[in-house]
Protein 1
Amino acid sequence: MPELPEVETIARGLAKRLTGDVIESVWLGSKPEPLKSPAAEIEATLLSKKIADVRRSGKHIVFDLVQPGTKAEQSAAAQWIVHLGMTGRLLVCSPDTEVAKHTHAVLRLASRRELRFVDPRRFGRLAVIEKFSPPGAEPLSISPTDFAVLFRGRKTPIKSALLNQKLLSGVGNIYADEALYRARVRPRRRAASLTADELRLLHQGLKQVLQEAIRLGGSSISDYVNSEGEEGFFQLKHRVYGREGKPCRKCGTPVKRVVIAARSSHYCPKCQK
DNA sequence: ACTATTTCCTGGATGC
DNA sequence: TGCATCCAGGAAATAG
C-alpha cells in the first residue's frame, strides 16, 4: 500500500530516471477510466511536454511539465498528478515489455522507453492541473504547534484523524498505527483527549517512523515495489501493524487488532493508553 | 461543520 | 480440486 514513504521512494526513483525526458505519445485505457480529469484533457496536457521534475506531495506523485525548447521552459506549464490508490504502479520499461493486465495508461518517451500506469484494483487516479495543492499539512514539515491544533475539539478517534487527508496528507493505515504505538496512545482515543505531551510524542513518533521508512525504501506488504521493481524493507521493522497476536517488542503482551472506521488498527494493550 | 458509514475494485486467502 | 465467500484499504459519496 503506497503511503507517504512508499510514494516518496517511487517519486525519487522516477525523478532520477525521467527528468528531462519528453512525452511523445499518450495512450489512456478504455472506460471506466481511473481519471479525475477528462481523458482528452490529460492527453492534450501531457503530449510533447518535457518532464522537469517528479516529486511527492502527500500520497500524490507530481510531475512538473514544461514546454520544451521555449523560454517558458523556466516556469511550470502544468502538472500531472498520479495517485496510486492501493495497487497502482508506475513502471518505466522498454516498449517491448509485455503490457501487463490492468494497464490504464502508457506514455511513450523520447528516450525510447515507456512509462506505464498499472492498477488492478482501480483505486488510483490520474489528473492534470495547473498547480496542485495538497488538502492537508505535510507531516514531515508541520510545526509541533500546528500539529496539535489539527486535533483540537475533534471527537473522532485519533486513528481516524491521522488518516484524514484534509488534516495531514500522506499518513495511511500502517504509519498511523506505528506512530500511535510510538506515542503510547491507543487508536480509539478521541483526538481531542490527547494531552500536550501525547501530541508531542505523536508528532515526533510520526516523523520518526516516516523518515525511517523512507530510509528503508518503504514497506512491502502485498505487492508494493519501487520504480526499479525493488521491494522496501520497513515491513521488517513494524512494531504493531500486521502483528496481531504476536508479542509486543517492548513488553511481550500480544498485539491486539480492532476495527476502527472499517480499518484494521493494531496496538499493544499494555504499552498504549 | 463534523462524523460515521457505505461504496468502489480485484487478487489472494480461506472454508466447505 | 473447485467454487463461493471474505478481506485488504484510500478517498469520495452519502447519510445523519
Note: DSSP finds six helices and ten strands in chain A.
Protein 2
Amino acid sequence: MPELPEVETIARELNAKVPRRRIDRIEIFRDDALVGVPRKGFRAALEGRTIRECSRRGKLLIFHLAPERYLVSHLRMTGKFALSEPLAAPLPHHRLWFHLDDGTLLVYQDLRCFGTLEVVDRLADARSLAKLGIDPLSRRFNAAWLGAALAGSRTPLKHWLMDQSRIAGLGNIYASEILYAAGISPETPSHWLDRDGVERLVSETRRILRKAIEKNGTTISDFRRVDEKMGEFQNFLRVYGKEGDPCPRCHTPIARIRQQQRSTFFCPACQPLPQFPAA
DNA sequence: AGCGGAACCTGTCGGC
DNA sequence: TGCCGACAGGTTCCGC
C-alpha cells in the first residue's frame, strides 16, 4: 500500500497525537508481523515505555521510545496504524492493539499480513533499515548523485527507481507518475539517461513527492490516514490506473505494460524510448 | 547483473 | 449464481 508520501502522512499525523503517551498494554490478535521476537517478548519489550516521536525512513515508520528502544514497521501492501476510541472487540483485520495511557487505542491492522513490526534497542540494529538507499527528499538526492548512480546500470529505469537499496521510498504508483512527469520511458535502460533527463527526473521526483505529501497521500482502495480519512493525491494522478484514458498532454491513450511482474502505466507518445545511448 | 517466477496472505473484480 | 483466474500501493528468495 503505502509509499513514501503515505508513510510520511501517517508519521506526521501520529506525531501530532502520540508523543508523551505511554504504552500501557498490548493485545496481540495475530502475530505474523512480529519480527525477531516471540509474542511475549514483544509485549515485554514495549509495555511501559513512552513514545517520544514517530519518524519515517523510506517506507518505514519508526516509533522512538523511552527508555530508548525502537519499533520499526513496514506496512507493505495493506498495513495501517489508526487511533481509535476503546473498542469492545477487534475488527476483522485488527492484528494488535496498543492501549495508551490516555485511554486511546493505537490499532495496527493488516488485511494481507505482509507488514512487519521489528523491535530494536538501536536503529543500527534494525534489519529492515539496513539496506535502504538515499531518501529522495534529502539534499544529497540531486543530479550529480543520480547521474553517477545510474551510470553502468542497464536495468529499466522504472524498476531501478523502485529498488529500495538505491532510492528509498518510491513504489509502483509514484515511479510511474514521476517518469510521466519527466517525459521519460519506463523502459529506458538506466544508463541511457542524458544529463537533461537526470535533472528532470530529480526535479519531478521532488515535486511529485512533495505534492503527494501535501495532499496526504494517495488512496486508491486501502490507504487510510490515522483518523481513517482518505488521502487526496489520487485526484492528481496522471497515468497510474488510467490505461486507455487520453493522456492529459497529448490525448494518446495511456498504455499499460508489465515490468518485473508489476503494472507500469505511461504515455507512449510523451515518454518515447530513446533511440540510442546519449553517452 | 539482472531477469522471471514463486512465495508470503487475503480480498475483490471481471469473465464465462 | 458460481467458479476461476487475474490482480492489488511490497519485498525476498531461488534458479537460470
Note: The first helix of chain A runs from residue 4 to 15.
